[in-house]
């Protein structure tokens, strides 16, 4: 290598070093937008700047690299649980408090469609409103005593209908647990007293009938 070539390389060295440093700084600055670490129990949906949501490819756990102008939305795909309290009205306008626990997870293969059409907050956008709507409708046809005595069975049946509706929105509802159905205290006590009195009357009638058969 002649002296002229060496001199040229030495002269260009600062430029080359500057370019390398700029590239390193750029990658470092944009690393949070380029490199995405998806953990166990998670999956990613990519939104492309020029073509929108990528619905036919779900990004699985591990390191994923995308263009810095795109975005990655990471979802929890494990079964999750959310506690819900809601007030609904009976047929007579009586306030009924329901305490529910909902276990759910997104449909993995349809995660891209879920993101495109509903978004990350799908539990509050779809699951809770759908279940609440069905419960308002069914409890609105029931009286207080019916809710107290057979309400749980009827509500479970209504919830199963809601789960079928939610499944059409790319979400799996694993289970809905009814923790408590609460009527106003005075109403619940009145119903309990009525039921107790009914049982006492039935017991008395049974004893009377038994004594008659002995005679």
UniProtKB/TrEMBL annotation:
Keyword Ribosomal protein among UniProt keywords: no
Transmembrane segments: 15-36
Alphabetical UniProt keywords: Membrane, Transmembrane, Transmembrane helix
Coiled-coil portions: none
CDD domains hit by this protein: SPFH_prohibitin
Xref: SUPFAM superfamilies: Band 7/SPFH domain
Compartments where found: Membrane
Lineage top rank: taxon: Bacteria
GO cellular-component term (any): membrane
Protein topology in the membrane: Single-pass membrane protein
Primary localization: membrane
Keyword S-adenosyl-L-methionine in record: no
Stretches assigned to the Band domain: 33-195
Matches recorded under PANTHER family: PROHIBITIN, PROHIBITIN 1
Name of protein: Band 7 protein
């Amino acid at each position: 290598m002649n002296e002229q070539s060496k001199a040229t390389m030495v002269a260009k060295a600062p430029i080359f070093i500057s370019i390398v440093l700029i590239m390193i700084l750029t990658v470092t600055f944009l690393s949070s937008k380029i490199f995405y670490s998806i953990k166990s129990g998670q999956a990613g949906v990519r939104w492309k700047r020029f073509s929108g949501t990528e619905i036919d490819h779900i990004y699985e756990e591990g390191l994923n690299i995308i263009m810095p102008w795109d975005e990655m939305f990471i979802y929890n795909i494990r079964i999750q649980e959310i506690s819900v309290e809601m007030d609904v009205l009976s047929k007579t306008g009586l306030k009924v408090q329901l305490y529910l626990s909902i276990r759910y997870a997104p449909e993995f293969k349809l995660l891209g469609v879920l993101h495109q059409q509903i978004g990350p907050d799908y539990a509050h956008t779809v699951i809770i409103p759908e279940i609440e709507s069905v419960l308002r409708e069914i409890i609105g046809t029931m009286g207080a005593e019916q809710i107290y005595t057979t309400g749980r069975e009827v509500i479970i049946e209504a919830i199963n209908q809601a789960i079928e509706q939610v499944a059409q929105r790319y979400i799996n509802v694993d289970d809905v647990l009814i923790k408590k159905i609460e009527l106003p205290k005075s109403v619940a006590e009145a119903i309990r007293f009525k039921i107790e009195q009914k049982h006492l009357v039935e017991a008395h009638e049974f004893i009377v009938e038994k004594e008659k058969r002995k005679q």
